[in-house]
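Sequence in, structure out. Go.
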Amino acid sequence: MKTQELYLKRELRFPLLALLFASMAGGGLVGLRIVWTKDWSYLFLIWNLFLAWLPLVFALGVCRQYQRGKRAGWKLGSLAALWLLFLPNAPYIFTDLVHLNNWFRHHYWVDLSLILLFAFTGFLLGFISLYLMQSVVANRFGKWASWFFILVAAGLSGIGTYMGRFLRLNSWDVVCNPFKIFKGLGHWAADPLANPTSIGFPILFATFLFLGYLMLYALTHLQPAQRQDVIT
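Output:
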């Protein structure tokens, strides 16, 4: 993979437009739900989807810096760090399914469809950002290093998603409230086996992310069927 072939390539523009359309459609459906139920609670989905867009924005920034020949430096390093910091926000929306057990059971199937739309959109945003970052790593360090990078990113995203859902930590807490981060991680590190979820969830979610990425990666590399002329 070469970043020159990925950044703002025509084949990339269509997925981005499709994801933008899906995001706008999701926002519209949330608006219809508010009109229907007179409840504003599901606005959190729009906020979470906005956060899911940020890793892609940072990944595009990394690709742009790399294309300009800047293979190091504070700009590229800062963008890569921000990408990794906000990456868990892309798949995080899947964990919003937990709200189905607590709110609006009369609208179960409507809410399920709505959350899944946002979750799938967020997951694909994360996939494209991972794909772009993998292209940079592959170009710089080689194919095998890029897949090790995907494994590490999936693992860290699993931990990050756990921190967001169960420890109620946010990506911006690293800057705005670092003490909250240290406190939450300290309690978790002090006795990680106290709650089986603290170990099982990050591992299972990281596995889910890696396998989901692997399957989508394989689908993007399908070759179209070629017409073969039969000579008689």
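Check: Residues 3-7 have pLDDT under 50 and may be disordered. The first helix runs from residue 3 to 6.
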